[in-house]
Specification:
By secondary structure, this protein is of the alpha+beta class. Helix content is about 35%, strand content about 30%. The strands form 20 sheets. Strands 42, 43, 45, 47, 51 and 52 form a six-stranded mixed sheet that branches.
């Protein structure tokens, strides 16, 4: 064993004898490191499974002995009071292991006791058997002595059997004894082990005690902390209560102060209120005086208006007379012409009709000629444009090298040829086509139909040609790319693969032939037929597989040939390679009869049956093993398809069962269908609604298909006779018309037709009368499951009964199973001659009688018993109740019917209280007959009641000047006519019609008017009596309250003038309080009201106009003191109701639908008359017009469904069209309204804040007569709305909107407008003018907000007929646009000359309106000084800072701006953002490129301003940093102009100039300490768009000499990747011997190697500075 096994404290193993051997080690041995451990051999057996936990226990003991064996748990508890997690876990683990050891010990004890009990029981059995053997031997001896041989033989057999049992028991005793010893040995070993661990158990007990102590201490500490926290919380709550009490006291004091202050202020307010009331009275008197003057002015205006109306009417009469005279004159001329023609013998009507037709034909010919001429010009222009396009393409392709010299646009040529062919179908040469087309275009003698068809075909072909030419021109690339080479390589590879596959197929012809198993070969003179190997199973079948699962099957191949053979796997069928894999190891040579194994793995991916084979090759020849993979399917069958019930009597109930069994592995749904024959669509289980819907769809699709086929046949056969064509076309049109009529009724009608057909079919083929199916008619049948279906036969009619039904299944592959059911029923011998006894109409409490005749066909006498249901025994009786009917005779019984009023309660299920119909089933029981005889008694029970629709009529409160009419409805509840009359009527009531007398038909309702008119103010309560013809009285209670109202209207009837829709009319009436301090209202009042009334009290009034009316009243409520009067303004604003507009929309829809149907009918008739076109061969081909029925189909379907009025919302197109239609066709409308004015009781003067009581006694009525006329001016834009909403507009911007109005009257209108506020933000930009009838005028309105607030104003457009009011509204919004760049400097870095770099920043619009912006560059600003004036000022200035440079720096030599911005201007939508792209593109090297970019909004506010900087280099490596050596302004001339280019080139080759760089380092000296000077230089490599340019290197020369002077450079050399830069740190530390105030200067070259090598001459100047920077 390994070392770990040797380190275990003990091992428990079992030897070969079954004994338990335990190896133990002492504590002294466990404490040692190595010598004391006990080692074991490798061949020692392992621990048994039930003792493996002892190993962990000893490992824990060992670990404890090594680490914590000397530590006392009690000491640990006393010292720190804390235990580690490891110690606690060790304690619990030891406790668990010790408990397991104890449990194991108890188990062993239990096993020992069990074995002892078994041994004891076995010994008892042995003793019993020994005793029986002794008794049996004694009995044998006794029988021998008696010489009873039979008994001796029997006893000996028993003795033998007993000895065998005794022997088996003794063997069992020995076996149990051995087991007992083994169990006792194991128990003793476990007891020894348990004793060894007693010390460990004591230690664990001590640790548990310490753990409990620690746990108790923690619990005590936690309890103490919780108590402390609770005390703190109580203190906080007490402080909070004290604080709340103090605040409450403070609030009470403040409230008391406020009450005192309020009382003082209320006294002051009362004083001021009296003064205000006095002043109001004075103002009221002045206002009334003004109203009188205004009334006089209005009276004068009305008089002048009347005179103007009279003058206008007179002018209209004159115009009408003139028009009438002109019409009479024209009619007279026509009459004279007609008389002259008749005198000449010419038919005048025909002549005049022909003249009108000729004029119409001439007009149409002129229009057609103009249209034909314009189309010819368009065709010629298109042809010329096409030729120009071809020429341009040819010129463009001539410049670009093309691989082929053929025409680049053959499609255009073909398109032109196709177009010319359609214009002239006759075959012509290519040179003559264009001339022919032009001649045809200019020819005006062609027929109208042919020209129109040719033009339509020409337009269609031109569109097709343009599309094809564009597609073909774009399909061919102008340049050959790498894709062509890839395609060629791919084609070569495909050809090679195809050749390899062909070779493989040629090498293996036998494998692909499929006849692998048919082998005929002779071996050793014997002929071998069949495959050389036999597979078991013969066919590899994967049955009932599921997709996604894996199936494996083992196959054994046996060599059945006569020679040694081998087997080689060739593969599986091609279509099975993706699903089946074969695991097969070639076994080598197999002798005859030997076998090998293989495994087929099937993993299906598709759910369908698969068949194939596994192909092998052998020495004898190839063979294969078939493979079949079948999905789950249903295998359904019934135990019997014919059910015969036999012969049964009417009234019995018999049932039979049919067992449906599914032997397949796939579950399915089934249903029972009683249809006589099943169609293919209904042969499977479906949802009924889907069945009908699918059937309708199939029918419609079949009709459409047949129509298409017929139409195509009629078009395609050009050689048919014209008569046959017309006949077929008429048939097609008739069919389409029928289909359109069916579809016009809507999808609901089609669905109803389908459903009705389905229902009829179900009714026709439902359960056959007496034969019916059971409760289980549909359900689910699982795999390998059976279901019993019940068929019930309940004969009710004698004769044969048949029922044929099918069992349908949802599985498509399962065919329906037909079931036939047959039965025969025999009739009963007794029947009732009249099975339904009709007593007609009966009345309550009247007796009615009838006879019941029972007939018998039996040959014996039978006893009859008549039974009446218990519910009807109080109302119906049959005498006699029992009788005997003689053979083949009849029996008469008497039926008595006396309906009582309790019939509806006693017989609820027989009597319908709503209709009065009584239908009672009666029964005749016949002795010896199973089914009783049933018959029915029917009657209609009615009453003689007259009923009012209400029991009490309340006329309400009316004045003594009013007449109140209330209507009641009197209904005759009886089924018989009844007379009625109102008798003894009071003098103040009148009943109409016919003064309260008449006749009511059955169930008739008559409306009766009760007219109440009283002249005394009091309460009325009386009763009206209506007496019927049956001398019954019906009473109606009436009550009314007649009052004298305290207020009075100056006019109770107001007649408005004719007001246009959209305008308004206003009138003024007065409400007068005629009460005085001494005369009170004479109305009946109670005691409480009388006590509350005082001498002086105002009256409150309130008008309540009808809801959704055109009436508004101001003021609608107020108060009047006695003797005062109030002016009331009543306004009438006629408008169109939403319901009217929606109804008009529906009417327009139906009208459009009718027009559409008429148009379809006209198109249908025109299609019948096909115009033949003569071809070049002389044949006539019918031409189908373009507007075929197929294109009109969807529109017709859309028009078939009318819109829902709820879905027509204001603002929609249908709504506005309907509104405009109503306005244009508006006629005069007259309406009357009654507006109640409610008047309150008096208000007590001492408590005016109390709400008064509104008494119905005081209600006044105001009658309004409101005529409305058609408006003269309407708004036709803005969806007909007069409200113009400018919505949100940015402050500083101006938004313009237009509103168009139209004059729809028959007179010109002179428009004027009201004056808008001068300080308003709204303005009318154009002037108004006079518009004639039917003309339009557009108002241009502007909105320019100046502040962030909402605006609203009213603009009035006045005319002589009406005033149109428009509401202008809008809101000013301050734009909020932010920039992603914070501003400042936008540095582009270094760029190669003639290359570019871009940077993008974003503008975010967080406001609610769209904001326009503009981006400006300082270099392109028109206000920038020209000629470099700003640069001159910069140069002349005292600018010594190296970092300062002008706003606009160096520019390109080409004159183009070095910085470009896209886009320059635009608009940002609300909540959206806009990307601004800035491009830096220099054309020469410089480090001084700069510009300034400013973003400005449309309201001139600036968003941000940034300085653009950049540098350009001619090489990819650059060095920058150091001090400025020249001004940041460059000349526009190139830096060097060489006179001789050749000399300049030679000098450049011989010596390349170096680039100077100056670096000044100043070390600081402070308090004798010198701080070294440090400067940084940057070396960068520009990333270029050219792939050849990569990174570069840099190198400092003579670094050693620099170090001698105190300079250090880090790094001295290195590489820089493209697009990166590195920092070079130059540090100077004064060297030893440096003299103060000395300047150290040195020059060192720096070499940069990139695309070219450049040398920078870096001059280092160092000094020590004592001044602070």
């Amino acid at each position: 064993m390994d070392v770990e096994d040797g380190e275990r404290p003990f091992d428990v193993a079992s030897d070969s004898c079954g004994q338990l051997r335990v190896h133990l080690s002492t504590d002294e041995d466990s404490e040692g490191d190595g010598p004391g451990l006990e080692t074991f051999n490798d061949d020692e057996p392992a621990l048994p499974p039930d003792l493996a936990w002892l190993e962990d226990l000893y490992e824990e003991d060992d670990d404890d002995g090594d680490g914590d064996g000397d530590r006392n748990p009690s000491v640990a508890a006393d010292n720190g009071g804390k235990r580690s997690y490891a110690a606690t876990a060790r304690m619990f683990k030891l406790r668990r292991n010790l408990d397991q050891l104890d449990c194991f010990h108890r188990q062993k004890e239990h096993d020992v006791l069990k074995a002892r009990e078994e041994l004891k029981l076995c010994r008892q059995n042995i003793e019993c058997l020994v005793k029986q053997r002794d008794d049996l031997e004694n009995e044998i001896k006794r029988q021998k002595a008696a010489e009873n041989s039979v008994a001796v033989f029997r006893l000996r057999s028993q003795h033998k059997h007993l000895c065998q049992r005794l022997q088996s028991e003794e063997e069992l005793e020995g076996h149990i004894n051995t087991d007992l010893k083994q169990q006792e040995l194991e128990l003793s070993e476990v007891a020894v082990e348990l004793g060894r661990f007693s010390s460990l158990q004591q230690e664990v007990q001590e640790e548990e005690r310490v753990f409990r102590v620690l746990k108790a201490q923690k619990a005590a500490t936690r309890i103490q902390q919780e108590r402390k926290a609770g005390q703190n919380l109580q203190l906080k709550m007490q402080r909070l209560r004290d604080k709340q009490a103090a605040m409450l006291m403070k609030e009470v004091n403040e409230r008391q102060k406020n009450i005192e202050v309020g009382q003082v202020s209320r006294k002051m307010a009362a004083k001021h209120l009296k003064e205000t009331i006095k002043r109001m009275h004075q103002q009221e008197a002045e206002r009334e005086q003004q109203n009188r003057e205004l009334l006089e002015k209005r009276i004068q205006a009305v008089k002048s208006l009347k005179s103007n109306i009279a003058a206008t009417q007179e002018s209209l009469r004159v115009q009408q007379r003139k028009a009438k005279a002109n019409a009479q004159k024209k009619e007279q001329q026509q009459r004279q012409l007609r008389e002259s023609l008749q005198a000449q013998g010419i038919n005048s009507f025909k002549h005049m009709y022909q003249q009108k037709q000729l004029e119409e034909i001439e007009r149409k010919q002129e229009e057609f000629a103009e249209r034909q001429k314009s189309k010819r010009v368009a065709i010629a222009a298109k042809i010329l444009e096409e030729e120009q396009l071809v020429n341009r393409r040819k010129r463009h392709q001539a410049v670009l090298p093309k691989p082929s010299t053929t025409d680049s646009f053959p499609s255009l040529g073909r398109a032109r040829e196709k177009l010319l062919h359609y214009l002239d179908p006759s075959p012509q040469s290519a040179t003559e086509e264009r001339a022919t087309i032009l001649r045809e275009v200019s020819d005006s003698s062609s027929s109208s139909s042919a020209s129109s068809d040719a033009e339509d075909l020409e337009e269609t072909m031109y569109k097709e040609v343009g599309h094809q030419s564009l597609t073909e021109s774009l399909a061919e690339p102008e340049f050959s790319g790498l894709w062509d080479q890839n395609s060629k390589l791919q084609k070569l590879q495909d050809e090679k693969a195809m050749s390899v596959q062909t070779e493989v197929k040629q090498e293996q012809p036998a494998i692909s032939s499929g006849n692998l198993n048919v082998i005929v070969k002779k071996v050793h003179g014997k002929e071998l037929r069949g495959p050389p190997f036999l597979s078991k199973p013969e066919i590899i079948i994967f049955k009932d597989f599921e997709v996604g699962k894996m199936y494996k099957k083992k196959i054994v191949l046996t060599n059945i040939s006569y020679v040694t053979n081998h087997c080689k796997l060739l593969g599986v069928s091609t279509h099975l390679k993706d699903f089946i894999s074969v695991n097969f190891e070639p076994p080598g040579s197999l002798s005859a009869g030997m076998s090998c194994e293989m495994q087929a793995v099937f993993q299906p991916m598709i759910n369908e049956d698969l068949e194939g084979e596994v192909q092998f090759a052998s020495a004898v020849g190839p063979f294969s093993v078939p493979v079949q993979c079948t999905i789950k399917n249903c295998d359904l069958e019934v135990d019997s398809q014919f059910v015969d019930f036999g012969l049964h009597v009417v009234g019995q109930t018999i049932s039979r069962t049919v067992t449906l069994t599914n032997k397949g592995a796939l579950a399915t749904l089934f249903s029972l269908d009683t249809a006589a024959c099943l169609s293919p669509e209904s042969s499977h289980v479906q949802v009924p609604t889907q069945v009908s819907a699918n059937t309708c769809q199939d029918l419609s699709s079949e009709n459409t298909t047949s129509e298409n086929q017929r139409s195509s046949a009629s078009i395609g056969t050009g050689e048919l006779q014209p008569q046959q064509e017309s006949q077929e076309l008429s048939e097609v049109l008739q069919q389409e018309q029928s289909v359109s009529e069916a579809s016009a009724t809507g999808p609901e009608a089609v669905l109803e037709a389908c459903v009705s057909t389905d229902v009829d079919a179900r009714i026709d083929h439902s359960d056959g009368g007496d034969l019916s199916l059971g409760n289980v008619r549909e359900g689910h049948i699982g795999p390998f499951e059976s279901i019993k279906l019940e068929v019930v036969f309940t004969p009710t009619i004698p004769g044969e009964a048949e029922l044929d039904f099918h069992i349908k299944f949802s599985d498509i592959s399962s065919e329906p199973i037909p079931i036939q059911v047959r039965a025969v029923a025999v009739s009963v011998p007794i029947w009732v001659v009249q099975p339904s006894i009709d007593l007609k109409i009966c009345m309550f409490d009247h007796l009615y009688q009838d006879s019941i005749v029972v007939q018998s066909r039996a040959k014996t006498a039978l006893k009859l018993t008549f039974e009446v249901c218990p519910e009807m025994r109080k109302h119906m009786e049959i005498l006699p109740k029992t009788g005997v009917i003689q053979p083949q005779s009849s029996f008469n019984a008497q039926l008595k019917f006396l309906p009582r009023c309790s019939l509806s309660k006693d017989a609820k299920k027989f009597f319908d209280s709503d209709t009065g119909v009584l239908e009672v089933p009666m029964t005749v029981q016949v002795a010896g007959q199973v089914k009783p005889v049933h018959f029915t008694v029917q009657a209609v029970v009615t009453s003689s009641d007259l009923q009012f629709d209400r029991t009490e009529v309340d006329f309400g409160y009316c004045s003594i000047y009013q007449t109140v009419i209330s209507s009641v409805r009197l209904t005759n509840l009886s089924l018989l006519p009844q007379d009625f009359g109102f008798l003894r009527l009071p003098e103040f009531i009148e009943v109409q019609p016919n003064d309260g007398f008449g006749t009511l038909l059955p169930q008739e309702t008559l409306e009766i008017d009760l007219i109440f008119c009283a002249h005394k103010a009091k309460e009325y309560s009386f009763q009206l009596s209506c007496k019927s013809g049956m001398n019954r009285d019906f009473h109606l209670t009436c009550r009314a309250v007649v009052v004298r109202p305290p207020l009075e209207l100056s006019h109770s009837l107001v007649q408005f003038g004719a007001t246009a829709v959209g305008d308004h009319s206003t009138t003024i009436i007065f409400l007068i309080n005629r009460e005085t301090n001494h005369n009170q209202s004479k109305q009946p009042i109670n005691t409480e009201t009388k006590d509350a009334m005082t001498l002086v009290a105002p009256r409150l009034f309130s008008f309540l106009p009808p809801k959704d009316s055109d009436i508004s009243i101001a003021p609608s409520a107020g108060a009047l003191l006695p003797g005062e009067r109030c002016l009331v303004q009543v306004t009438f604003r006629p408008r169109l109701l939403d319901q009217e507009i929606k109804e008009e929309a529906l009417r327009l829809f139906h009208r459009a639908k009718l027009l559409r149907e008429k148009e379809l009918e006209r198109n249908t008739h025109t299609e019948k008359e096909e115009v033949p076109v003569v071809t070049s061969k002389g044949k006539k081909v019918p031409v189908v017009p373009n507007n075929s029925r197929v294109s009109d189909g969807p529109k017709t379907e859309q028009l078939t469904e009318p819109p829902n009025p709820v879905d027509i919302q204001p603002g929609s197109e249908q709504y506005e069209d309907a509104r405009a239609s109503l306005l244009y066709s508006f006629n005069q409308r007259y309406r009357e309204y009654t507006v109640p004015c409610f008047v309150s009781d008096r208000i007590p003067p001492d408590d005016r804040q109390e709400q008064p009581a509104w008494s119905p006694f005081n209600t006044l009525d105001l009658q309004l007569q409101c005529p409305a006329v058609q408006p003269a001016l309407v708004v036709i834009s803005n969806n007909g709305l007069s409200t113009i909403d400018f919505h949100q507009v940015a402050v500083g911007e101006k938004v313009i909107k237009r509103l168009t109005v139209q004059n729809i009257s028959k007179e010109p209108l002179d428009l004027r407008s009201s004056v808008l506020d001068v300080r308003s933000v709204f303005s009318l930009l154009n002037a108004l003018r006079c518009i004639r009838p039917g003309d339009k005028h557009t108002l241009v309105l502007a909105f320019s907000p100046c502040l962030e607030e909402k605006y609203c104003e009213t603009l009035e457009v006045r005319s002589q007929k009406m005033t149109l009011r428009m509401t202008l509204c809008g809101e000013g919004v301050v734009p909020a646009v932010t920039c992603s760049h914070p501003g400042g400097v936008l540095d582009f870095g270094y760029v190669l000359e003639s290359e570019s770099i871009t940077q993008v920043f974003k503008l975010q619009n967080s406001s609610a309106v769209a904001v326009g912006f503009r981006v400006q560059l300082a270099s392109l600003s028109p206000t920038r000084p020209r000629g470099g004036a700003d640069m001159v000022a910069f140069l002349l200035g005292s600018n010594t800072d190296s970092q300062v440079q002008p706003t606009v720096g160096t520019q390109n030599y080409s004159g183009l701006s070095v910085f470009t911005v896209v886009p320059v201007e635009g608009s940002i939508a609300p909540g959206q953002s806009q990307d601004i792209t800035v491009t830096f593109q220099p054309d020469h090297p410089s480090v001084n490129y700069s510009d300034r970019l400013t973003i400005e909004l449309s309201n001139k506010s600036k968003v941000c301003m940034m300085d653009l900087k950049g540098a350009a280099s001619s090489h990819n490596m650059y060095l920058y940093g150091g001090d400025l050596l020249k001004v940041p302004i460059e000349s526009l001339l190139p830096p060097l102009i060489a006179s001789d280019p050749q000399l300049a080139a030679e000098s450049e080759v011989t010596e390349r100039p170096t680039i100077p760089v100056l670096v000044t380092l100043r070390a600081k000296c402070n308090a004798g300490t010198i701080t070294p000077a440090v400067r940084e230089l940057q070396v960068g490599c520009i990333r270029s768009s050219q792939p050849s340019k990569k990174g570069g290197e840099f190198l400092w020369d003579n670094v050693a000499s620099l170090q001698q002077q105190g300079f250090s450079v880090e790094p001295g050399k290195g590489t820089v990747e493209a697009g990166h830069k590195r920092t070079i740190t130059v540090k100077w530390t004064p060297y030893s011997g440096y003299k103060p105030y000395d300047v150290v200067q040195t020059c060192v070259p720096v070499t940069l190697k990139g695309d070219e090598t450049n040398v920078y001459r870096v001059t280092l100047i160092a000094l020590v500075s004592t001044t602070a920077d």
